[in-house]
Write a structure and sequence with these properties.
By secondary structure, this protein is of the alpha/beta class. It is built from 8 helices and 5 strands, in the order βαβαβαββααααα. It has a 5-stranded mixed β-sheet with strand order 2-1-3-4-5, with helices on both faces.
Length: about 210
Amino acid sequence: MTTFLYARVSTSDQTLTHQVTQAHEAGFSIEDDHVIADHGVSGVATRLCEREQGKRLLDLLRRGDTLVVRWVDGLGRNYDDVVETIQRFMKKGVVIRTVINGFTFDGSTNDPMQKAVRDALIGFMAAMAQAQAEGTKEAQRAGIAHAKANEPTAYRGRKPSFTREQFSTVLTLAGQGTMNTSQIAKSVGLERMAVARIRQNPANAEQQLVTWGL
């Protein structure tokens, strides 16, 4: 039985090292050669089975193995894709665990009530992942539009204190509703006020990133 970490690194702000560190801090023990990552892949455009390393992951995992992911959004491009992928792994006998909030999805249970609760949670998390992705895209569009409308202005303001990865993670955690601003700040390594500003006005935060080319 082997523990694998799958990471999707879709932007220059996201680093594999950071995601591996997060997994280790969450208590997962993962060998370097069991870290599988796809770089430069859009999560909302490409299914896991269509990604180069995603295909490799599907071939590597065996019954009894554990797959660790930062969050379920890394396993698919939308609600249907995420649910299908998780169900596929569980039928294969693979246990899926998330770094954020420490959820576990195990297909070995035969208890109908446990299965119902598990499947409902999978659907809920997948729906949240898609809603968050759509919210992030909307914030990005609003930020780009605002930046274009103010292109004649040379002054770009203060450089953001957060990266695009941190911005996306803050929105993801805030959308889950299980962590307060202070807890999110600690999780992503930002000041509390920075997290509060992102939560209060994500479009403005996105505009800052776009203005600075981040």
